């Protein structure tokens, strides 16, 4: 899994540019054999913003989800399931409906590819939810299984914009031994530069995973 975290900007034009960047990154990752891509789109803390700003971001999200649904041919061709991770109940009804529609639209039998969009998301809230679900048997395995990402740990977490923190994003998942964190100074919309920065890491993780699977198959048989 490749997980991408970037610093939120106030201007909606940056969100529009990020959406275009996101589709390019998703396409490249899938072509390279990455099976799961997770992005941090909207934090629970974003609800602390002004009403006008929240309304603008929600309107933009509704528009872009509709656009993604209309461009579903790419998702269908690659059998990529779109999943939304977070407290969806906090979102307006219309946005919830579009989320449900897109998830149903991309539900494929035995699909191995996932595109996770963290919206109304907080890693602390995710862990609290997981602990609540397994309070009778609280151990590392049961808690992990009740995370939004289940047991699918990210192999690479990318933090853009020059920040050196994860900002409440996949905190428990990042602690996994096989997870690496890449900090880059480029801003998220700068797609060409972002790709050049993360491409070697994606290729390295993909080839390592392939070698591991080959060794496993050889050992098994």
Q: What's the structural domain tally? A: 1
Strand arrangement, major sheet: 3-4-2-1-5-6
Return the CATH architecture: 3-Layer(aba) Sandwich
Note the run of SSEs as H and E: EHEHHEHEHHEHEH
Helices, by number, come to: 8
Write down the overall geometry.
globular
Poorly predicted regions are 6-14, 210-221
Q: Ends: how far apart?
A: 27 Å
Radius of gyration: 17 Å
| CATH homology group | Decaprenyl diphosphate synthase-like
Largest sheet: 6 strands, parallel
Mean pLDDT equals 78
CATH class call: Alpha Beta
* Class per helix and strand makeup: alpha/beta
Strand fraction equals: 15-25%
The third-level CATH topology is Undecaprenyl pyrophosphate synthetase
- Give the proportion of residues in helices: 40-55%
Number of E-state strands:
6
Describe this structure in words.
The chain has 221 residues and is of the alpha/beta class. The chain has a single domain, classed as Undecaprenyl pyrophosphate synthetase, CATH 3.40.1180. The chain has helices at 12-31, 51-70, 72-77, 93-105, 123-133, 140-145, 171-174, 191-220; strands at 2-5, 36-43, 80-85, 113-121, 156-159, 180-183. It is globular, with a radius of gyration of 17 Å. 32% of the residues are buried. The model is unreliable at 6-14 and 210-221 (pLDDT under 50). InterPro entries: UPP_synth-like, UPP_synth-like_sf. This is Alkyl transferase. Belongs to the UPP synthase family.
């Amino acid at each position: 899994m490749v997980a991408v975290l970037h610093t939120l900007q106030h201007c909606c034009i940056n969100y529009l540019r990020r959406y275009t960047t996101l589709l390019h990154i998703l396409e490249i990752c899938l072509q390279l054999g990455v099976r799961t891509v997770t992005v941090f789109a909207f934090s629970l803390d974003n609800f602390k913003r002004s009403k006008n700003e929240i309304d603008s971001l929600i309107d933009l999200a509704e528009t872009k989800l509709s656009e993604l649904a209309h461009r579903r041919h790419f998702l269908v061709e690659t059998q990529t399931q779109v999943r939304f991770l977070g407290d969806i109940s906090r979102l307006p009804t219309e946005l919830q409906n579009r989320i449900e529609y897109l998830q149903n639209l991309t539900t494929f039998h035995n699909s191995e590819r996932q595109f996770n969009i963290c919206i109304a998301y907080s890693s602390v809230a995710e862990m609290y939810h997981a602990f609540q679900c397994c309070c009778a048997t609280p151990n590392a395995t049961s808690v992990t299984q009740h995370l939004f990402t289940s047991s699918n740990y990210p192999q690479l977490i990318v933090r853009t914009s020059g920040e050196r923190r994860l900002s409440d994003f996949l905190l428990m998942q990042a602690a996994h031994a096989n997870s690496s964190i890449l900090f880059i100074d480029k801003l998220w919309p700068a797609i060409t530069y972002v790709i050049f920065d993360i491409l070697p890491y994606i290729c390295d993780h993909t080839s390592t995973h392939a070698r591991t699977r080959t060794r496993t198959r050889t050992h098994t048989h």
